[in-house]
């Protein structure tokens, strides 16, 4: 009678990776993640509380060039100086960037997943060659103009209009809540035309273009947010993106950016959870660390559950994107779940830290307030619920 072999001894439990998710990652994945993590620890974390408190990102162009040198801008895109990384690797980069601050991840998302993606996917070869290499290197900054003062969730109602004037276009309208707007060199602007909604590449030094910065924000303070004002901006015929007409263009770009948010939100959540875990081990009340009390352990266990479930969901969606099988409804699933759960983790972590949780000496409240913006932009909770509701029932409840 044969004797069964002894089972392989399990590795030690890792509080920072309780499910062993790192085992799902390739050596290349881990190298990308660790490179971005080291960069963020060196270049962002020592300064982010001060930038956030001051409401500015004074080294934006310097950081953008550094991100470009690492291949972090337009990561999943191929050619034109882009890294051609996998979707999973791009997601891991978003997680690490947002673990530093949502504003830094937003800078990368808008540059790569909105502005660069629009040009790469819908632009002409001439447009790609003109703009993408400089954008991939971080020498050219882009922004993405879709949302308007009166039209956010319903972009079909946009009022910005482009009309033909001979062989040129004249572009008039306003866009609102535009990340990178006042520092951008080129704006991807979506406008109504007689042919339908079209995308335009607008050099920001064009006469009639201005981008006043939006101030007095309590969220995404270490991020440049602007209004775009277009007063009969004259553009040549070749400024229009030739490969798309209608909302399919901007919504396709948003879907790509939302995927990065699915990962990024878990970065903010991880930073808050780890801050609470470290605090619970060292903060003493009633003669012992608060991490030794049942109620605190329940909070830590619940946070760990949602954090690592969210990372597993993000990884699954990344594999689907790499396989070419990811659907927009699945991105809505991830964005809705992960941002909502990330906010919950931040709020619970704040209770573990007590009064210290509201201090910028810790990252928790900064992440919590940033995520209030992330919850709303690129699709509110309600819009993603309706996307899933339509997919589940086959019935359209948007109107």
Describe this entry's structure for a reader.
The chain has 399 residues and is α+β, with helices and mostly antiparallel strands. The chain has three domains: 116 residues, Acyl-CoA dehydrogenase/oxidase, N-terminal domain (Butyryl-Coa Dehydrogenase, subunit A, domain 1, Orthogonal Bundle); 98 residues, Butyryl-CoA Dehydrogenase, subunit A, domain 2 (Beta Barrel); 146 residues, Up-down Bundle (Butyryl-CoA Dehydrogenase, subunit A, domain 3). Helix content is 50%, strand content 14%. The chain contains eleven helices and nine strands. A four-stranded antiparallel beta sheet has the order 2-3-7-6, covered by helices on one side. Helix 1 packs parallel to helix 4, helix 7 runs antiparallel to helix 10 and helix 8 runs antiparallel to helix 9. It is globular, with a radius of gyration of 22 Å. It starts with 26 loop residues before the first helix and ends in a 6-residue tail after the last helix. Belongs to the acyl-CoA dehydrogenase family. Its EC number is 1.3.8.6. Keywords: FAD, Flavoprotein, Oxidoreductase, Transit peptide. One of its GO terms (molecular function) is fatty-acyl-CoA binding.
Sequence-ordered SSE layout with sheet pairings:
Layout: H1 27-43, H2 48-54, H3 60-69, H4 87-100, H5 102-122, H6 125-136, E1 142-145, E2 161-165, E3 168-179, E4 186-193, E5 196-203, E6 209-210, E7 225-235, H7 248-282, E8 284-285, E9 288-289, H8 294-323, H9 328-353, H10 364-376, H11 381-393
Parallel strand pairs: 1-4
Antiparallel strand pairs: 2-3, 3-7, 4-5, 6-7, 8-9
Helix pairs in contact: 1-4, 4-5, 4-7, 4-8, 5-6, 5-7, 7-8, 7-9, 7-10, 8-9, 9-10, 9-11
């Amino acid at each position: 009678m044969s004797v069964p072999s002894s089972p392989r001894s399990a590795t030690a439990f890792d509080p920072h990776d309780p499910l062993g998710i790192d085992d799902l990652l390739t050596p290349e994945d881990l190298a990308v993640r660790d490179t971005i993590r080291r960069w963020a620890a060196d270049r962002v974390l020592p300064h982010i509380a001060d930038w956030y408190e001051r409401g500015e990102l004074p080294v934006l162009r310097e950081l953008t060039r550094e991100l470009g040198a690492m291949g972090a801008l337009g990561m999943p895109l191929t050619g034109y100086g882009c890294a051609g990384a996998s979707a999973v690797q791009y997601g891991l980069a978003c997680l690490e960037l947002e673990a530093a601050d949502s504003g830094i991840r937003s800078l990368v998302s808008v540059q790569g997943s909105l502005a660069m993606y629009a040009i790469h996917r819908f632009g002409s070869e001439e447009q790609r060659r003109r703009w993408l290499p400089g954008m991939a290197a971080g020498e050219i900054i882009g922004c993405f103009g879709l949302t308007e003062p009166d039209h956010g969730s319903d972009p079909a109602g946009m009022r910005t209009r482009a009309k033909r004037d001979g062989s040129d276009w004249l572009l008039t309208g306003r866009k609102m809540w535009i990340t990178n707007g006042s520092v951008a060199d080129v704006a991807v602007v979506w406008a109504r035309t007689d042919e339908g909604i079209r995308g335009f590449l607008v050099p920001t030094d064009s006469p009639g273009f201005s981008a006043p910065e939006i101030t007095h924000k309590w969220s995404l303070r270490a991020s440049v947010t602007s209004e775009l004002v277009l007063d009969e901006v004259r553009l040549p015929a070749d400024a229009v993106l030739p490969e798309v007409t209608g909302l399919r263009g901007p919504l396709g770009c948003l879907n790509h950016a939302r995927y990065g948010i699915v990962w990024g939100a878990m970065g903010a959540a991880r930073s808050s959870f780890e801050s609470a875990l470290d605090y619970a081990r060292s903060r003493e009340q009633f003669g012992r660390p608060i991490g030794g009390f049942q109620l605190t352990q329940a909070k830590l266990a619940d946070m760990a559950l949602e954090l690592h479930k969210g990372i597993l969901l993000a990884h699954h969606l990344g594999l689907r994107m790499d396989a070419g099988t990811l659907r927009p409804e699945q991105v809505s699933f991830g964005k809705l779940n992960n941002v909502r759960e990330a906010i919950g983790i931040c709020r619970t972590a704040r209770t573990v830290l007590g009064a210290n949780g509201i201090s910028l000496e810790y990252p928790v409240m900064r992440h919590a307030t940033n995520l209030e913006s992330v919850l709303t932009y690129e699709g509110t909770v309600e819009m993603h619920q309706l996307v899933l509701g339509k997919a589940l029932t086959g019935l359209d409840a948007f109107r």
